[in-house]
Design a protein that fits this description.
Length: 126
Amino acid sequence: MTDENLIITIRVIRSFHHRNLKNLVLKNVNKNTNIKDLKQIINQEIKKSSLPPPFKTFTYDTLKIEHVPFKAKSNDPVINCEDDDILILQDDQIIANTIVVNETEISYFMMSDYLEYKSNRSVKIG
């Protein structure tokens, strides 16, 4: 791995209320990749991964930094609901121009589901 490439863990969130999420590790992600292209790479990796079929057919549209190495983690087990303006990655951004570093965890989810979860953080069982 060179200084231009990163290892990033993607937390693929299918359902916030049911805490239905899986991790996907991406290796050798170029720092000069823009977020829109990163989403395409993630979608390709999801389709060829061993994730269950509901994860492969779901539509994801948003990336948000969950955890940067050597920083404090959120108390919420599903997603960090703080600092959306800083942590949500915009399609036109380049990875190198964000706070993403090697071994960062990034959540990948549907924004409408996130907004619903943020307004009501209850967990549904069953």
